[in-house]
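Here is a complete protein record:
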Amino acid sequence: MANLHIKSRLLAVLVIGTMGGIASQQVPAQAATYHTVSTQSVKKTAYHKKSRKGAIFNKKHTRKVVNLKSHPNTTWYATQRATLKHGKTKGIYFYVKNGKGNIKGWIWHGYLKKGKAPFTLSKAKAAVAMDESTGKVVWSKNGNSARPIASVTKIMTLYLTLKKVDGKSSNWNKKIKIKSHGLVSMSRSAAYGGFHFTYGHKYTVKQLYDAAFLDSSNNSAIALGQWVAGSNAKFIKKMNAQAKAWKLDKAHFVSASGLENSDLRRYGYGYGSANANKVSAKDVALIARHLMRDYPRVLQDGQVGSKRVNGQLCYNYNNLLKGRKYYRASLKVDGLKTGYTPLAGYCFVGTGQKSGKHRVITVVLHDANEFTETRSLMDHAYSFKSMAN
């Protein structure tokens, strides 16, 4: 067995040279092939990789199909077992397929471990999936570690804005005059702006809310905070007080928008000694849960793909919404907030309610594949029996 295992690895080197890729390649003509001694069907059984070693071949081992290390989180389903002979040695091999059935072939049994592959998100630095009905975290990766969260911060700003508005149309229509050259300058920045401010112009609270929510306007979020609390500093204190009231011990704010102080100071809006807001993925999910439960209108507001606000187009960057690139009908995603800074990376807090299931809240932080990994995380969350209605 050991000799066959070694020869199999040597053959893999002859076939490919280096491990990687799905493309199949032929072995040199002089390489000996594997011969079938016996084959039998077996009950379909789940396996996953045992280590970084191993590859799937065709039965004669003249063509490599894929390396296991290229699919670290794949569950393989074995349906056949064979004894293969190579030279004077024999070994036991399984015929396996992935879940989609588009990758299949034969692999030495010693490379596999029985059971489904543990679920993971390879790109996210931190992530959680939460049952919105119960507030229970059903899956977590570094979920209690406080990290920069970029514009995901705005869900707290939106919460405090909605609390101040208190459902009154008079508050939605209240006009806020822009008297800060710093906010005007920020609004004109390609990197930090988006929704342009005109000095001395008056914007309604609803206009600023839409710009902050949909277009993730940093200057609009700061202007809302000043309206809510009277000043930027007072608003940030209110953010931290609200986090404390909710017993979020992994949440600390220095910014109403999610921009870091290293960027805010140039506009006159630096606050505190820390550079960035730092909130754990779990606490982000809890903030989102409070926002949706106390102000369910955000689920309607957050589904708007784009709208004109004061003559400017505000575009919602949630690409899991209907009509967007990563939309999947079964997940029924209807929110919630994106975020990005170079320090925080791509961040996203999402929510949706699959038919027959509880609503799910997902958070991925510093994730280059924030939308595809959110879909995977939602699917995994729904696999728990506790998520069923």
